[in-house]
Design brief:
330 residues, alpha+beta, five-stranded antiparallel β-sheet, single chain
Length: 330
């Protein structure tokens, strides 16, 4: 059946219109998709607080509270009722946890050096700092308190690796100030901590912060460790180097004092007399891993605060040493 000239024109117009519609639709999809892909590749990776309440730090599924252990801890707390405490422990294999005042804010003391250490290794991964670069000990960064660098001459140079090692292993305050300065100052570090989802960790002044104006919480420090061991903040190589430095801390009177033989802890302590704290990543001889963070506000230099932390650490360690520890009563 032949078409009239008018019908041929109508059919040709319909074909051209259909072709143009398909062509323009494809171009629109490409134009809309390409910029989104470019934008996503340029967005820096940050860690926000997990929207899912069943996840800790967005990386560890929370399972059950350690209800069987809680009465033992609370009995110990009643014995040491003159102490103000906050603690958070998390079994990384099962997701079982002990949270007693874990969100309570305390003066950070030298535990603030833990997130600073991780920020340093972030910048190392980003190529912003080098381990062998020379840092100068300026007079405005020298301070008292813990450490030996304060007794060296002003103007002496240290490698960044040597400085960050002293910051952690002997808790050198002058070394800490040098690292804070090298990373851009307290305000920039605080901004980064917020990007990790830390709610209570704030540097308000350089060390030595003997009045306790710098703050953190047990949950915040456990969050930093959870993100690190799950490779969310630094590269695997930097993770291992940072943990190795933390394993060489020289103060073993708090969390480490309650661990069994063969356990290994990567931790950072803090002590400004009226407040003591410790946070660490523990590897048990049976292969289990858990996070621990605890703070105690005490009468000035009262040794019973240290005893309390040791006993809590021992209770948790012995509990998790069981083949199948019961997480809850229900």
């Amino acid at each position: 059946m032949s078409l009239t000239p008018k019908e041929n024109i109508v059919k040709l117009s319909w074909l051209v219109s259909s072709f143009l519609s398909v062509f323009l639709l494809g171009s629109t999809v490409k134009a809309a998709t390409k910029p989104v892909q470019q934008t996503l590749s340029q967005v820096p990776i940050t860690v926000s607080p997990a929207a899912d309440s069943d996840m800790f730090a967005g990386v560890v599924p929370l399972h059950s509270p350690m209800k069987v252990l809680e009465p033992q801890i609370k009995t110990l707390m009643a014995k040491y009722s003159f102490l103000q405490t906050g603690m958070f422990f998390l079994d990384l294999e099962t997701g079982n946890y002990l949270d007693i005042g874990g969100d309570r804010v305390f003066p950070a003391a030298s535990t603030i050096k833990l997130p600073i250490l991780i920020a340093f290794f972030q910048d190392l991964d980003a190529g912003k700092v080098r381990l062998d670069e020379q840092l100068t000990m300026r007079s405005d960064l020298v301070t008292n308190g813990s450490g030996i660098m304060q007794y060296e001459r002003v103007g002496k140079k240290y490698t960044a690796l040597e400085t960050v090692n002293k910051m952690i292993t002997i808790s050198d305050n002058t070394a800490t100030n040098m690292i804070i300065d090298r990373l851009g100052g307290a305000a920039k570090l605080n901004q980064r901590f917020r990007g990790w989802g830390l709610k209570d960790t704030v540097i308000r002044r350089l060390l030595a912060d003997l009045r306790g104006t710098n703050t953190t919480s047990s949950q915040d420090l456990a969050r930093v460790l959870a993100l690190v061991v799950n490779n969310k903040l630094v590269s695997p190589q930097s993770r291992e180097q940072a943990l190795d430095i933390l394993r060489h801390t020289t103060i073993h009177t708090l969390l480490p004092a309650g661990l069994g033989k063969g356990a290994v802890i990567a931790n950072k302590t803090g002590d400004i007399g009226f407040i003591i704290g410790d946070a660490g990543f523990i590897t048990m001889p049976n292969g289990k891993h858990y996070l621990a963070a605890i703070f105690v506000k005490r009468p000035y230099r009262d040794s019973r605060g240290r005893d309390f932390i040791r006993q809590v650490s021992q209770l948790v360690y012995n509990y998790l040493s069981q083949p199948n520890p019961v997480a809850s009563n229900y």
